[in-house]
Amino acid sequence: MSLSLEKSVIVTLSIIACCSITFFLTIDKVMAQGADIDIKNSDDEKNKIEVISKINLENISRTGLIKVVGVINGEDFVKNIPLDKIKDTTKKLKVTFSMNKDNEINSAHKPDEFFVCAYHIKNPSNIKSESFSKQKEDTIVDNFDCNEGDIQSTTSPTEANLFKANSQVYNKTATYYKMYSKPDVVSFATLANDTTKTSKDISNLKTDIANTGNDENSNNKPVKVKIIVPMEDKKNAKKIKIMAMLKGQIKSAIVDVQKEFDRIGGYTIERTFAFDRNTDMGPIKIGDRFHTCVIGKELYPPEGSECEKRLIKSLDRPNPLAAR
Question: What pLDDT, on the 0 to 100 scale, is given for residue 175?
Answer without folding.
Answer: 95
